[in-house]
Every structure is written in C-alpha cells, then in structure tokens.
From TrEMBL:
Organism expressing this protein natively: Actinoplanes palleronii
Keywords for the protein's UniProt record, in alphabetical order: Signal
Record-linked NCBIfam families: ScyE_fam
Protein name: ScyD/ScyE family protein
Stretch forming the signal peptide: 1-26
Record InterPro entries: 6-blade_b-propeller_TolB-like, ScyD/ScyE-like
Amino acid sequence: MITKRSAIGAVVAVAGLLAGPLPATAAPAPPPWTVASGLDHPRGLAFGPDGTLYVAEAGHGGVPCRRIPAGGQVVAGLDRTGIGPVCAGASGAIAAIRHGHVRRIVTGLPSPTTPADAEAAGAEATGAETTAAWAAGARAAGPSDVTVDPDGALSYTVGRGGGADLRTTAGLSGAALSDRGRFVIADIDAYLKGANPVSVLTVDRGKLVVDAGGDTLLRVGPRGRISTVATFPRRIVPAPAGMRGGARAGAPIPMDAVPTSVVRGPDGAFYVGELTGFPFPPGQARIWRIVPGERPRVFATGLTAVVDLAWGPDRTLYALQISRRGLLSGDRTGALVQVDPGGRHRVVVGDGLTAPGGLVVRGRYAYITDCSTCENTGSVVRVRL
C-alpha cells in the first residue's frame, strides 16, 4: 500500500501480516458486517460530527501508461529502477457514506496505478518484488486519508506514485494543503522533496501529517507553515533470498521505518504506526509514542505492516495490519490487533479482512476499509469490539 518513495502528495481541505509467533487471539469476533460497498481502492476514513463517514478512495489510475525509467524514483519502494508502467489518471475521490449510500463529494483527484502483474507488463522485477508491490497496494496511490474538523471541515492526503517524470505526465507537481477550491495553503513537497503524505490528523491550530516518503511526522500550522515534529530512523535487517542487485540472503541492508498513521492518545501524546520498508519483515513493525519536543519512544513492537491506528472508548489502542504474514508472503489476509498499555498485543479480528486499508472507532464498533487494493469492489465493514 504505502512504501518509502512511492508518491508525492497533497493534503487538501474541504470548507495515502503478523508472522513469526502470532499474538494470542481473543475469542472469535462476529464476522465483519458490510456498511457500504462499490468503493475504488478505499483507504483512510473518518466520521464527521453529524455521523457521516468519509472515505479516501485512491482510484484506479488512467491512461496513458508510462514506464518509470532506470534511475528514477521508486514506485513500490523496492529499488530505484522501478517495477513497470505507471498509469496516471484523475480517478481519486473522497466519498461520503450515510445510511449505506455512497456519494462522492470530491472527484478528479490524482490517481497513479501500476499493473497488478508487473512482470506481465514487461517490468524487470523478481517474483518476490512483484508480489510485494501488489500486496502493498502499489496498484494505486492517490487519496489515502481523511480527517474532519469539529466544525465539519474535511482535510485529506493524496499520494502520487513515481518520480519527476511521472509527476510531469500526471500534469500535477508538488504536495499541498488546499481548500475545496484547490487554493494552496501549504506546499509540502517544497518543504521536503519526495514527500509522500499518507495520513492527516486535525489538532489544535493545525494538522499533523505523516510523511512516509521522508519518515517524518509534520505539523502544518493554520497559515500553512510546516515544521518537523519527529523523524523515524532506519534499521539494518537481513536481506531476503532472491533480492535484485546481488545482495546475498542474510546480508545486512537498510530498512526504512515508513510511518503510515497518527492518532492522539488519551494521555495527550501522539502515536504513529509503521508499515516498514522493503523487505517488509514480519513482526518488525512498531508503534511510536510522540511527545512534541521530546525524542520519539517505541511504544509497541512485534507487529506487521501497520497501516492505521485508532483508540477505543476504553482507552485501548487498536492497530490495523494490511497483511497478517507480511507483504512478501502473498497472503492478503489482514488483522485488527488490540495493543495493551504495556505494548503487548492480541488479534481481535484475524479472518474476514482482505488487504484492509483504514480504521476508525466509533462507540463499540471498529469501521475498516476492506480490499484497499480492489478497483470498485472495496468496502467499509463494521466489527464489534
């Protein structure tokens, strides 16, 4: 879904697999109940004050398709040669859901996609890399998250895949915080080149934005001033077998943090979840606790491919994982995990989720975007906690 340098993006205002030993699983939860369907690569979601549920749809790209040349920026965070053609269009959208009815209130947003099978499209990628790109949702960047102010005003992030060549082809460059009329409030890409804003949270006098491209948490003030709140470090991990570029299996390689989500905790601190970069090792994703002005502290470890976080009414933190067994496994079964105050975690929902992309909790229910890599067959499901 989200990888290190998979996109540049925009925040736009209106008025991107547990493995090893799996955590203990709670008593079987009731199967997810479908709230709305027919969504196009659905990602982050948020409730408005009137109960309307808003969903960011990454879209399905468009034509023509162009290949990212060797030496260009990555499409799926796999390496710097790209994995194949990118098809940029304006099919991204923000949808409003009420009583099961889906209405797209913002349309025409940038949506770059890659074919589901990069090798079939002529890319020189290994099978493992192709699988990772597909499992990570590389088929669509585009709109990735949405937040709602207390007065009902919306803000949303838009990620756009590829480097400068793709940005020129798509007809849009840079990353911005804008209003519904596309008036630019803040140019995020000018602040941090290669920015990939993937999550946005309304805070006092501004927004917090997670930039997966720069491994940073940013703050955007009310007048568009951008500052860095926290930066998340790389780690050294063993290379997987069959990696392109000659690295032998087990050789040390750097892995980016790739933060994907931010929420405010009941203690006033901010919590940030990691997807991790290639090779996406199972059980190596973390959750960070952030207090502005202090160094980030690891809150929980042992997770896999975290794409969103949410706090429940009982002051419990929940983490959504796009793939239970890791992005290189080919298993698209996701998981909803409860994270205890000490950082321990257990699976709440381990079946019935396919490549989930976003999470919000309202009352005793978790609302999840399901099949976040699916064109027009994604959905929002509800699970009782």
